[in-house]
Amino acid sequence: MAELVKVAVDAMGGDNAPGVTVEAAVEALKASDRIKVFLVGKEDVIKNELSKYSYPQDRLEIVNAGEVIEMAEPPANAIRKKKDSSIVVAMKLVKSGQCDAYVSAGSTGANLVGAQLLVGRLKGVDRAPLAPLIPTAKGVSLLIDCGANVDARPAHLVQFARMGSIYMENIMGVKNPTVGIVNIGAEEEKGNALVKETFPLLKECKDINFVGSVEARDIPAGGVDVVVCEAFVGNVILKMYEGVGGTLIKEVKAGMVSTFRSKIGALLVKPALKETLKKFDLDQYGGAPMLGLRGLVVKTHGSASVTEVKNSILQCIGFTEQHINDKIQAALDIDENQ
Amino acid sequence: MAELVKVAVDAMGGDNAPGVTVEAAVEALKASDRIKVFLVGKEDVIKNELSKYSYPQDRLEIVNAGEVIEMAEPPANAIRKKKDSSIVVAMKLVKSGQCDAYVSAGSTGANLVGAQLLVGRLKGVDRAPLAPLIPTAKGVSLLIDCGANVDARPAHLVQFARMGSIYMENIMGVKNPTVGIVNIGAEEEKGNALVKETFPLLKECKDINFVGSVEARDIPAGGVDVVVCEAFVGNVILKMYEGVGGTLIKEVKAGMVSTFRSKIGALLVKPALKETLKKFDLDQYGGAPMLGLRGLVVKTHGSASVTEVKNSILQCIGFTEQHINDKIQAALDIDENQ
Asked: Is ipTM over 0.95?
């Protein structure tokens, strides 16, 4: 039997911790026998939550951490000062090699800062991007970068494109994934200074399938497999997904019960519609991996459901078993020797 | 009787010109007796289209322009070389004061370049932003800037905020409209360099109701009335609206007819749902005004429908009758004397 994939879970992170995180860990253990979970946080609190469930005890360990980093704390400061927080203790498990991966629904800022400072980047990686999968009409695309590094430079975007390609090919099984750069028009001469500088660099990359610019309107249709952009733009794209989707679905639901006639119709379409909307539910796709680190860091929404946290934990299996980091390292090494 | 508002329409611009543009002009004349339309383009072609309709002939004039700027032409070059194009001729009607406003579904680039070069900016205006109305759960918000000026500076964004406020208050009737800057978090210290520099400047503006950062996810819910951002981000927001909305509606429709049961339900909910989706149809809101120019320029989608072009023409009435430009000029003058 292959070695178990060891995943550290920030039991205290997120709006509904530790209830959601502990339940998700139990669910993940039941869903796969290829993982071992390390629940990091206040031991007594975790034990209390765990007492509600039965689970394979040999594949779950509690690692005590007495402090909690709150959502609103200034990230860099929190990481530096709260050495006994669940985030810091869990990340150190990855750094030391005791764990392969780490999952948190806690403060985005603290996780992003902590990942760079504590887990550390792979050799040659300048910035570690946050890269969520987003639902499209065709399946999913990878949106890279989405929150970690504002004001990125062209060379960073090129690394994002490479890392994103490797992820989509190896984890999502997309053969020769298409890569596009987010732009305000299809032509090479369009764009802001960053995009104009990055475009020719991407064209030169022989190890990715760069297809040019992708306009934001074509992203939900599944225009390209890997959507490259700097973090501010990526954050806007991700949140427009949530915002437009959420508002539209609310309006559609309200519209459906606005007349007596439509209310009856709504009852009949509901089951079929539920399937459709599930496809566009970001929760289904687990959390967002941060790529380019010495170990996998997966960040899920603060308001993540049990399903999302569970899927985030399970996502670590493929990442570790497919040796994604070795592949990223190899791709960047080739680049340096060119 | 007050003087008629005189609107120049680029009859040759857009994917479906001159059919859509000429029909829209006729519809606008029928909808309001406060406007006169100048159809600019190839006289024989326009006459041929017009022969299909009856319309108030005393309020429609044809202005001949022998050339057409195509969608894909390099904008600056096209504006400089094609002096007899419908865009150039129509804009000169505004510059000379023969017309108050101008509407086009033609090349965005050529219109943006032409507006700055030919119509010209108001005194004190550094950049003229493109500011479409976007549908929200509460009504509409103004998204400013959305395509005219990439890589804007903080001072530009402050002017956008002021001009957008004046537009929302006077044209849309929103009392003391709320103004937010698009950001990746709610806190003042978040954001990229541009946002961090702009935030304190907006806080100092006493003539606008600045409420701080707005996250992209809150825009469709109607978080603020005036959404301030630089053009690249604005373009992404606008196109995500179209993209997510379009894809989601397509999926919902497909989901509704996926089973026999849901097909019957779909027939029953259809009329109610149509009303809801109409609210989220960007076409309903006419085109996007470019603010800060010596005259109004309204740019509609290349694929604009008759309704959108008609609404764009009608939009010019309020803008002119409310003396928006005088109000913008006054606001910027106060600023200069502060």
From this structure: no
Return the beta strands (E) in chain A as ranges: 5-10, 35-41, 60-64, 101-104, 133-135, 140-144, 178-183, 209-215, 226-228, 288-290, 296-299
Asked if the C-beta of B336 comes within 8 angstroms of chain A's C-beta atoms, the answer is: no
| CA quadruple B118, B122, B126, B127: dihedral sign | negative
Helices (H) and strands (E) in chain A, counts: 11, 11
B106-154 pLDDT per residue, tens: 998 899 999 999 999 999 898 999 999 998 888 899 999 987 677 899 9
Query: Which positions 216-255 of B are in contact with A (Cβ < 8 Å)?
Result: 216-221, 231-233, 235-252, 254-255
Residue of chain B whose Cα is closest to the Cα of A236: B216
Mean pLDDT of B158-180: 94
Whether cis (ω within 30° of 0) applies to the bond prior to B283 is: no
- Cβ contact, residue pair B268, A268, below 8 Å: yes
d(CA B194, CA A121): 27
Residues in chain A, how many? 338
What percent of chain A clears pLDDT 70, i.e. is strictly above it?
95
Say yes or no: B262 contacts chain A, CB-CB below 8 A: yes
CA distance B29 to B73: 32
B282 touches chain A (CB under 8 A): no
DSSP string for A26-91: HHHHHH-TTEEEEEEE-HHHHHHHHTT----GGGEEEEE--B---TTS-HHHHHHH-TTBHHHHHH
Q: Are B243 and A137 an interchain contact pair (Cβ–Cβ within 8 Å)? A: no
Which tokens hold the place of A124? 């040659």
Task: List pLDDT tens digits, range A276-304.
Answer: 777 666 666 668 899 999 999 999 988 88
The Cα–Cα gap between B123 and B146 comes to 22
CA dihedral sign, ordered A158, A160, A164, A166:
positive
For chain A, list residues with pLDDT below 70: 1-2, 148, 279-286, 334-338
Higher pLDDT: B206 or A187? It is B206
Q: Which of A231, A244, A275 sits opposite B220 (nearest CB)?
A: A244
